[in-house]
Structures are given as C-alpha cells and as structure tokens.
Amino acid sequence: MNQFSRKVQSIKMTSTTLNLVVAACNNRGIGVDGRLPWRIRQDIDFFKKITTETKDPEKKNAVIMGRKTWFSIPEKFRPLKDRINIVLSREMKEIESGVYLSKSLQEALELIKDRDLSSKVEHVYIIGGSSVYKEVMTGPYKCRLYLTRIMADFECDTFLPDIDEKVFQKIENPLNVPSGIHSENGINFQFEVYDKLQT
User: Fold this and answer.
1) What sequence ranges are listed for the domain DHFR (predicted)?
2) Greater model confidence, 189 or 97
3) 125 and 61 in contact (C-beta within 8 Å)?
4) Which of 84, 99, 159, 186 is the most buried (most CB within 10 A)?
C-alpha cells in the first residue's frame, strides 16, 4: 500500500463512530487493582445491553479492549458472549480461539474493515482501559461516549481522561439510554452521553 492509499484508508477509519462505554466516580476513577471498585448491577446490565444489541440479527458488535481490561474480566465470562472480542496488546502472542489479537487500535480498526469482518460488525465499542480511552478521545476519531457517572468517592488507580467541554458535547440521552438519577447499594449514579465535536 503506497502513502496515498494509506492516507485515504486512515481517513476512512476515522469515519467509523467509536462508542466508548465507561463508568467513572467523582475523581474520574474507573478501576483499582484491575477491577471495578463498586458493584452496580444496573450498570452491568446496561453495558451488556448496549454492547450486545444490534438492529441486524445477522451482525454482532465489536468490543475493543486493552490487555489489562481483558484479564480484568472474570475468566468464566471471557470472551464476552455474542460480541466480537478484539484485544490490544504488543506483548501477547496468542489468545483464546475466536478472539482477535491486534497490536494497536489502528490495526484493530483495519481488522474490522477487512472483508471477513466488515459484513459481520454493526457497531464498534471501546471498553477500556484508560490509555485506549485517551487515544480515542484525543485522536482523530469520531466517537460517542456513554458514561455512567458514579456520584460517590472511591479509591482508584486508573482514571478516565478529562472530558473537555470544548471537544465533547453532552446530548440528550438516546432512547436506549436510561435518564434521571438511579440508586443501587446506596450509590447514586446516572447515565450520560457525549458526542465528540467534529472540527
């Protein structure tokens, strides 16, 4: 592929909307010791629903995640059911059957554009971790952020990048996203949706 072809291909990549799904507490913390510091069933159910449901029953959604996020998923739930799992890692040489391994986000997006997968994928979801969120949020990607805002304080060692209001615009929740403040296990939370402004 020559330089011009690569540039055209790169532009095409950015036209695909990347959907980021994440839960963060008051300090933008998203995890500690490779796990969520809270357990909110409604958030888990929302995550499953939004990353699994498709309009076309013949297609599936792709979920892209870093190596640490992959290993943070309990083994009995790996790979995530009814979704095309893609793990980003430069270190891993092999992975479970049916799971795709890519060295970078760009390589993962190229994989999805490949003839074998392009007809099978409906939407692309980024599900962690912090560095992958940052790459999408600050890079030349068209994206939508589905944020579960946890209205509480938790000790975390992994954080979501700051949501720059000059770059991201909060929108009215789409039909598939619950509105209002919810409560579970004494924790208040709400679902928010942001679209990245195109420059």
Assistant:
1) 17-196
2) 189
3) yes
4) 84
- Read off the pTM: 0.90
pLDDT tens by residue, 20-47: 999 999 999 999 999 999 999 999 999 9
* Cα–Cα nearest to 19, from 54, 70, 58, 68: 54
* Residue type, position 114, single letter: D
Residues 6+ apart with CB under 8 A from 189: 23, 40, 42, 43, 148, 149, 150, 151, 181, 182, 183
DSSP three-state, residue 4: helix
What residue ranges define each of the domains in the chain, with the CATH number in brackets?
3-196 (3.40.430.10)
Task: Tell me phi and psi for residue 133, to 5 degrees.
Answer: -60, -45
Beta carbons of 145 and 170 less than 8 angstroms apart:
no
Residue range 115-147, pLDDT digits in tens: 789 999 999 999 999 999 999 999 999 999 999
Q: How far apart are CA 13 and CA 110, in angstroms?
A: 8
Q: How far apart are CA 66 and CA 20, in angstroms?
A: 13
User: Which of 164, 163, 195 has its CA nearest to residue 177?
Assistant: 195
Q: How many CA atoms lie within 13 A of 70 on its CB side?
A: 20
Q: Is the dihedral of CA 86, 125, 157, 187 positive or negative?
A: negative
List, in sequence order, every residue forming a beta bridge with 188; answer none if it has no partner. 183
